[in-house]
């Protein structure tokens, strides 16, 4: 008796149906990741702005380090964050100007907007070197 090799038509159809169901479930999950990626990018920029403000304030707070000595940058407005970040504010993001207190170390919540989505987030502006 000769042995058969290969799959039957029913087995092939069952495999194709299973693959179709898996594709129908998985594709929407991957297609919708762009919104999450944009939100994560905004949070990354906000984190960088928080860090830049904190590092600049620390540089200004060290005794003898003044804007004149090029150890820190004077910051008194939210939109000054571009001058303390290496490379400035990334393209695709805008800042809402707003005064930051009257004394060194005063803080204010500053708003950054992602222009491609109009999503917003806040970071803490710290007055320094003024």
Automatic annotation (TrEMBL):
Q: Which InterPro entries match?
A: N_methyl_site (IPR012902), Pilin-like (IPR045584)
**Organism domain of life:** Bacteria
Listed transmembrane segments:
7-27
Coiled coil stretches, renumbered: none
- What PROSITE patterns does the annotation carry? PROKAR_NTER_METHYL (PS00409)
Q: Which UniProt keywords apply?
A: Membrane, Transmembrane, Transmembrane helix
Pfam families attached to this UniProt entry: N_methyl (PF07963)
Q: What is this protein called?
A: Prepilin-type N-terminal cleavage/methylation domain-containing protein
Query: Which organism is this entry from?
Result: Thauera sedimentorum
Q: What taxonomic classification does the UniProt entry list for its organism?
A: Bacteria, Pseudomonadati, Pseudomonadota, Betaproteobacteria, Rhodocyclales
